[in-house]
Amino acid sequence: MLGANDGIVSTGSLIVGVAAANVPHAEVFISGVAALVAGAMSMAAGEYVSVSSQWDTEQADLAKERAELARAPVLEQQELTDLYIRRGLSAGTARAAAEQMMRRDALGAHARDELGISEITTARPLQAALASALTFTAGAAAPLLAVVLAPAPQLVVAVAVVSLACLAALGALGAVAGGAPISRSLLRVMFWGALAMALTAGVGRLFGTTVG
Ligand SMILES: [Zn+2]
After folding, report:
1. How far is the CA of 41 from the centre of ligand 1 (A)?
2. Which pTM value belongs to this model?
């Protein structure tokens, strides 16, 4: 969902900026394709790095915790007890809770309550990277399709309208899915989309007239 938003805003505003500089239709299209590929790759790379490094950190923390549990289980149980006391349990209840938690799944209890790792998942960086590249591409395809279909004089308006309409649809979908008020979510995504396109259009117009 977020990737699609990014795809619409970044590709849409790049196309609007290039088109506002009175560049030939074919070159506007090529710029749009390049923006789509560059954006999708940068989303994929960013996601891959972020998921992998998060996984590395979690694995290192878990390995350390596992070693500590093996070396000093009594100390680790005390650690958990203190944690529960700090969170509001009485000393007796905290001790009993820590003991039961440790008996069932010591590493799981420490991972959750001490490290804040909610479930010991196997993160899939490649899958995450592919998903963000695909959602970005789906979003970027909308303004690019407008370039293909719109006649040259209406290019800027067509791309802006299509981009804003897609942003609105995504915003409404997101609000419905999240149970949030639709109008606020719509206003937010459309404001940022419109601002991005207005800015790049201004820059395109400025340089288009200066250079051309
Ligand atoms: Zn611990």
Report:
1. 39
2. 0.79
